[in-house]
């Protein structure tokens, strides 16, 4: 699924009309017809049902007017409400409104009314079985206040469900933030391509089911304007898991070293190592302290090496030997942030370069130590490096507040990308995967059951294994791992429920996910 910013969508719309010659009202009609199909399939209104259509005065409102005429044609009872006078519509919307004037008796105009007046007028209407929100679309350019806020509140207070045209009114399609107030939709029919923000939070909570409508934007227009992102989901994953060569052996499919797991957070590294193991790596060497090694030994396939002593000190020679054995490195889960941890990270970043996943405590150390961050930048200049921050870690790396990071997750991810030429996996309920030479990946797999400690550790191991499978495309390696991780989480939730979706339950489902997608 291609994803775009509202600006790009508007540009594609403009070029389709001006350069290709598709009349604007044809696009509007396709949008409305697509929305009609979604409405009928999803809501199954009863014959003759009253269906409210609340329209702003831009083209989103025009889509609403066109939809109302189609509902009338099918024998339903549209209740068409305009926020202003039809003269304020653009030419296409005016044309559909002329038709509506001749067909639809139940028409209302709220021009000249303040917020209280809008509320009173809407509350006086007899109840509808369904409300269509055609107030504001991609033209949203300021917070929703006053009379529009009143209209949004009215929709949100109705017992009837809300069907959003293009987007719930009030959502910023670029960032996914609510500007002022926003309608709570059960279903959203989005026109052209889904907007990036629609896959992010908090937008996802307002959109309900997202149904993209093909309005006939030609591929050449799409490619000339450019899509900014892809949704990472089962469709995207198809065909991307390569077959393993018949002559594969344990030394040829990835030797992964993992550094961390020091007492008392020994389990973190074992989780990461299990991720690497079930991600398909051939040999797995956790480098840890004596207690961490005990934890790792609970999994027979792992080969832990003590690289820290009983007093927590780093044994640099042991670390060097471990690195020499490995193709790929994960550093951070359960590493700690003390002096020995710093030494270990510096050692790893300045040793012979190998693809490296930097996670958890190692990210905190990068944020605290300018020289270590510089070493990571130098490493990233010669081999694939993947950074996997959650919003708190990203905030530390950018020296910003977590709220600032959350207010525009994509921009924050890109800000880090401008400082280090790595793959950034910004982990959240809607994980963003970014690299400077690739589009964004926005993950659509996974579920709230995955809000459990250890999930991120499993992911870092999976990414390391995936880097061995896709050595020339680290963005794709990381995106595949993120997508597979979420699919396994979804399979786990199906089996054990949301609350029991532990990292262990997720790991148990990885096999099923690979079986579905492996070539
Ligand atoms: N994607 C496509 O190719 C197509 C999209 N269509 C629909 O058109 C809208 C975008 O239309 P546009 O006229 O540009 O914008 P809006 O309808 O969203 O609204 C513009 C209108 O609203 C005012 N406004 C902006 N913010 C606010 C606010 N917070 N409060 C009040 N008023 C606000 C602004 O000043 C303008 O006057 C797109 O979403 C699709 O639904 C086409 O129909 C088909 C092709
Ligand atoms: K809308």
Automatic annotation (TrEMBL):
This protein's record includes keyword tRNA-binding:
no
Extract the InterPro entries matched here. Answer: Carbohydrate_kinase_pred_CS, CARKD, Nnr, Ribokinase-like, YjeF_N_dom, YjeF_N_dom_sf
Cofactor(s) required, per the database record:
K(+); Mg(2+)
- Residues annotated as binding AMP are 427-431, 456
List keywords of the entry alphabetically. Answer: ATP-binding, Isomerase, Lyase, Metal-binding, Multifunctional enzyme, NAD, NADP, Nucleotide-binding, Potassium
Q: Where is the YjeF C-terminal domain?
A: 233-517
Instruction: Enumerate the GO terms in the molecular function aspect.
Output: ADP-dependent NAD(P)H-hydrate dehydratase activity; ATP binding; metal ion binding; NAD(P)HX epimerase activity
Keyword NAD attributed? yes
The reactions it catalyses are:
(6R)-NADHX = (6S)-NADHX; (6S)-NADPHX + ADP = AMP + phosphate + NADPH + H(+); (6S)-NADHX + ADP = AMP + phosphate + NADH + H(+); (6R)-NADPHX = (6S)-NADPHX
Task: List this protein's GO terms for biological process.
Answer: metabolite repair; nicotinamide nucleotide metabolic process
Its Enzyme Commission number? 4.2.1.136, 5.1.99.6
* Residues annotated as binding (6S)-NADPHX: 59-63, 137-143, 166, 268, 334, 390, 457
Textual note on the cofactor: Binds 1 potassium ion per subunit.
| Residues noted as binding K(+) in the record, renumbered to the chain | 60, 133, 169
What sequence ranges are listed for the domain YjeF N-terminal? 9-223
Q: So what does this one do?
A: Catalyzes the epimerization of the S- and R-forms of NAD(P)HX, a damaged form of NAD(P)H that is a result of enzymatic or heat-dependent hydration. This is a prerequisite for the S-specific NAD(P)H-hydrate dehydratase to allow the repair of both epimers of NAD(P)HX.
Q: Which family does it belong to?
A: Belongs to the NnrE/AIBP family. Belongs to the NnrD/CARKD family.
This protein's assembly is summarised as:
Homotetramer.
Task: Please give the name of this protein.
Answer: Bifunctional NAD(P)H-hydrate repair enzyme
Could you read off the lineage of the organism from its UniProt record?
A: Bacteria, Deltaproteobacteria, Bradymonadales, Lujinxingiaceae, Lujinxingia
Q: Which gene encodes it?
A: nnrE
């Amino acid at each position: 699924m291609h994803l775009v910013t509202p600006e790009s969508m508007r540009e594609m719309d403009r070029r389709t009309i001006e350069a290709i010659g598709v009349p604007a009202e044809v696009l509007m009609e396709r949008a409305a017809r697509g929305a009609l199909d979604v409405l009928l399939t999803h809501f199954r209104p009863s014959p003759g049902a009253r269906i409210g259509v609340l329209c702003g005065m831009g083209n989103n409102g025009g889509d609403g007017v066109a939809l109302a005429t189609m509902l009338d044609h099918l024998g339903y009872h549209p209740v068409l409400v305009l926020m202003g006078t039809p003269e304020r519509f653009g030419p296409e919307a005016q044309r559909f409104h002329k038709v509506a004037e001749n067909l639809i008796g139940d028409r209302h105009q709220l021009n000249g009314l303040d917020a209280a007046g809008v509320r009173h007028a809407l509350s006086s209407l007899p109840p509808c079985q369904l409300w269509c929100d055609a107030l504001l679309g991609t033209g949203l350019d300021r917070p929703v206040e006053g009379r529009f806020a009143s209209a949004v509140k009215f929709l949100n207070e109705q017992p009837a469900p809300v069907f959003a045209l293009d987007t719930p009114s009030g959502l910023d399609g670029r960032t996914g933030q609510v500007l002022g107030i926003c309608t709570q939709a059960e279903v959203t029919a989005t026109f052209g391509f889904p907007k990036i923000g629609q896959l992010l939070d908090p937008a996802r909570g307002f959109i309900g089911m997202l149904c993209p409508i093909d309005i006939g934007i030609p591929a050449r227009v799409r490619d000339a304007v450019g899509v900014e992102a892809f949704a990472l989901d089962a469709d995207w994953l198809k065909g991307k898991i390569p077959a393993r060569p018949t002559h594969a052996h344990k030394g040829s499919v990835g030797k992964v070293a993992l550094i961390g797991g020091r007492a008392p957070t020994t389990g973190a590294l074992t989780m990461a190592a299990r991720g690497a193991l079930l991600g398909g790596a051939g040999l797995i060497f956790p480098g840890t302290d004596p207690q961490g090694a005990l934890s790792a030994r609970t999994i027979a396939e792992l080969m832990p090496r003590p690289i820290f002593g009983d007093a927590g000190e780093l044994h640099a020679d042991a670390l060097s030997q471990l690195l020499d054995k490995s193709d790929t490195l994960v550093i951070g889960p359960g590493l700690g942030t003390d002096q020995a941890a710093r030494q270990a990270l510096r050692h790893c970043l300045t040793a012979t370069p190998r693809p490296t996943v930097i996670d958890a405590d190692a990210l905190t150390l990068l944020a605290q130590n300018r020289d270590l961050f510089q070493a990571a930048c130098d490493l990233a200049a010669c081999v694939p490096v993947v950074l996997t921050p959650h919003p708190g870690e990203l905030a530390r790396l950018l020296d910003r507040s977590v709220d600032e990071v959350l207010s525009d997750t994509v921009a924050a991810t890109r800000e880090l990308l401008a400082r280090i030429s790595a793959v950034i996996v910004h982990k959240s309920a809607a994980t963003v995967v970014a690299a400077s030479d690739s589009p964004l990946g926005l993950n659509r797999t996974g579920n709230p059951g995955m809000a459990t400690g250890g999930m991120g550790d499993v992911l870092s191991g999976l990414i390391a294994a995936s880097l061995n499978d896709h050595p020339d495309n680290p963005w794709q390696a990381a995106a595949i791992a993120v997508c597979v991780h979420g699919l396994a989480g979804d399979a786990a939730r199906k089996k054990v429920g949301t609350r029991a979706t532990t990292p262990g339950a997720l790991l148990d489902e990885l096999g099923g996910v690979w079986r579905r997608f492996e070539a």
